[in-house]
Amino acid sequence: MLVTETAEKIKNMEIRGAGRIARAAAEALRVHALSLETASLMEFRSEMQRGSDLLIATRPTAVSLPNAVHIVMAGIGEAETVAEARSALTERAEKFIASSRHAVGKIAEFGARHIRDGDTILTHCNSEAALSCIIEAHRSGKEIEVFATEVRPRNQGLITISTLNDAGIKTSYIVDSAVRSFIHEIDLVIVGADAVTVNGAVVNKIGTSQVAHTAHEARVNMLVAAETYKFAPRTIIGELIQIEERMPGEVLPEEIAESLKNVTIRNPGFDVTPAEYVDLIITEAGAVPPQMAYVIIKEYLGWGIEEFHKIFEVNNRHDE
Ligand code: RI2
Fold this sequence. Notes:
The protein has helices at about 1-10, 20-35, 40-55, 65-75, 80-110, 130-140, 155-165, 180, 210-215, 255-260, 295-300, 305-320; strands at about 120-125, 145-150, 170-175, 190, 195, 200-205, 220-225, 270-275, 280-285, 285-290. With about 325 residues, the protein is of the alpha/beta class. The chain folds into 2 domains: about 1-105, translation initiation factor eif-2b, domain 1 (Four Helix Bundle (Hemerythrin (Met), subunit A)), CATH 1.20.120.420; about 115-305, Rossmann fold (3-Layer(aba) Sandwich). Strands 3-2-1-4-7-9-10 form a 7-stranded mixed beta sheet, sandwiched between helices. A 3-stranded antiparallel beta sheet has the order 5-6-8, with helices on one face. Strand 1 (about 120-125), helix 6 (about 130-140) and strand 2 form a beta-alpha-beta unit. Helix 1 (about 1-10) runs parallel beside helix 3. It is globular, with a radius of gyration of 21 Å.
């Protein structure tokens, strides 16, 4: 079953990157909807829900994942037959995947305009959206250079330098702790995002907030490239983004870790960069200051506070 396989691949990071996991989840739900053999709408609904829950549970931080699942699953809402539900779901999944790819293209176009000829850019982790801006600037003829971090412990920096190398962009590869040593050679920082909260804080790969703090201190601008489906609606009602803590084995080999009885290995995958360290968030809807996060959540994702009131009302009715 593709949903189980996809969930496993997202969990072990064979499929990774906030945008990619969102598209993979939408595709898994599409195939699942097509392959479910049942004439009962109730059974269809609950099987699709089971698949959705499985996908969402794989990685807790990237909000692109629940947002994609929610967008696709909303197709079941009005359906009166299995055939209607199936066709609405597949149509929504296809639309989401296409619009996600289109969004990255738009971000590339808008983001590249913020990169000047001669700029040296620093990026952290491996973000398709952030790299698309850099590659588009290079493609349009700007002479640019990039500094890319290693990104311990999973070393996503290796994917970044290989992509930049293939694009023919001059790149320096540095360890994460070398950012401050090189910040005076940097004109602009561009990173991606796993989630953007309603107050404009950016949740991204561990180390991003250190990069942002260093850039802020050195007065280097910081751009975040993030599709609108990376904004987190539930932060409107005070929910916090859960920071994924991954296995200690990613940091140290188990035999070493086990021999150090008094040592605990902590391995958070993400951190939070406050809005005041972010100059602009480049979305497919345009470049916006982080303070506009609520507008993006409401206008582009369709989640205003009214939506939550409606949900609360329905839940209260059920409780009575
Ligand atoms: P795009 C990644 O998470 C990184 O934190 C990256 O910055 C972010 O997703 C956004 O990536 P991970 O899956 O969607 O490597 O821009 O933990 O590709």
